[in-house]
Specification:
This protein is mainly α. The chain has five helices and no strands. The protein is about 80% helix and about 0% strand. The longest helix is centred in the C-terminal third of the chain and has 28 residues. About 10% of the residues are buried.
């Protein structure tokens, strides 16, 4: 197995293990979703991230695969930070959420541009 495929296989296994553990753990959080809408939004962001990441097909290019997976990860960070701005009260955490939004959005744009140049399957 070449180095890129081996690296991707390790990444995929780690992601699968994390997803399985999170799914099992998320059942214990289900009672909070009925009481706390902010919790439901945070968990929804995580659900969307995991579903999007799980749908990524390996391209055979470790860089492309990294970017495709990280786009979902960064989008979840944006969504969670926006939830913090809606529900959070602590000024320090609200500032952090604003910083996360600025940084992650910039990184998403960088990754999208890079992907357009490097992934033959991405829309031009």
């Amino acid at each position: 197995m070449n180095k890129k495929r081996c690296l991707f296989a390790i990444l995929l296994l780690a992601f699968s293990a994390t997803l399985n553990a999170w799914q099992q753990d998320s059942h214990s959080h289900s009672q909070k979703t009925a009481v706390e809408p902010e919790w439901a939004e945070l968990m929804g962001s995580m659900d969307n991230m995991h579903a999007t990441m799980a749908s990524v097909e390996p391209s055979g290019d470790a860089d492309v695969d990294f970017v495709k997976l990280m786009l979902s990860h960064h989008q979840a960070a944006l969504d969670m930070a926006k939830t913090e701005l809606v529900y959070g009260k602590d000024p320090q955490m609200r500032r952090l959420a604003q910083e996360i939004i600025a940084a992650q959005q910039s990184e998403i744009e960088t990754m999208q541009l890079w992907l357009k140049r490097h992934d033959p399957n991405s829309p031009k």
